[in-house]
Known about the structure:
Blueprint: H1 2-22, H2 28-43, E1 49-54, E2 62-63, H3 67-73, H4 76-87, E3 94-97, E4 102-111, E5 114-122, H5 128-158, H6 169-186, E6 190-197, H7 200-207, H8 209-225, E7 232-237, E8 240-246, H9 250-266, E9 269-271, E10 281-283, E11 287-294, H10 301-317, E12 323-325, H11 326-332
Parallel strand pairs: 11-12
Antiparallel strand pairs: 1-2, 1-5, 3-4, 4-5, 6-8, 6-11, 7-8, 9-10
Amino acid sequence: MRKIVEVKENHYQKILDFICRIGEVDDLVHFLDYVDNFLQTDFKASPILVYSTNANAGKNVRSHRKKQIEEIYYHKNEIRSFKQEVKKRIKEVITIGDEDLFYYTIPLGTFTEQDYFLCFKCHEEFSKSILDYFFQFLKTTLTKIDRYQEARGLKSLVYKDEITGLFNQRRFGEDIDEAISRAKEEKHQFSVIFIDIDHFKQVNDGHGHLVGTKLLKDVGHIIKTCVRPEDLCYRYGGDEFVIIVKNTSFTEAKSIGDRVLNNISEETFHVTRNEGLSGDSEFKLTVSVGIACYPDDATTRVEIIKLADRMMYKAKQTGRGKVCHTKDLFSKE
């Protein structure tokens, strides 16, 4: 009896230490990796298997671990037995075994509309109270991760432009401050590129806002394809777009500005009958582009935005469909 109590206390202490050690986790994959490492290290368990089923309907079982783990550490009959329990959508821990080997199926709860289950085998036998304690911790943590995920999704919507899918002006305001702070700290350059669609008001007035919306979306897509993965693209408002080009010289920023200009001017934009016109139509567009660089041209948020915007309007005033940068301004004024 004393030995059983000691084993129970040992199990409880190990789980408690693990809970204290793991802290806050907001990512499902990392959380499951932590649990897997804990069970293997502290209890010599086989690598965990993780399955899910649709929380609302259906009994199809999806595996979330590498197939090699199943093949190497588990027999087909063992896997079949786990999946049978998962299909039942159990609500409490199931233990199957004898004195030598035990199989555990633990319901983790719901994450992104999927019911998750953790399965493993181990030579250690856990008491019901210990399993319930561990089960409650796992379930609570999964609920937190699901809420973190939901919160991140809602936050991302706050920063997204509904029409183009690019970041919006609110996000630009935060990112430009971060770009300046990082550039100061790391002693590197970055550039801001302002882009305005030429004569876009005539398109809206002549063909309606549905057509204008379709063209804005298409222009946003082209701009996104002109930059590197680390660069940031925004719809600034109306028919204006902005790019923050990270860790680049003026020459590299100018190259991106030219690419945006050329790709848009070479594109034939198609608007179908279903997208706001009485019939299918084609449009040709041009843009005016302005560039300012940090820290060569400006060292504050207000300065660099104002200067890039000024360069864009200089491009408009001097013929449209061109790229202007501060070197043009300072060489002629």
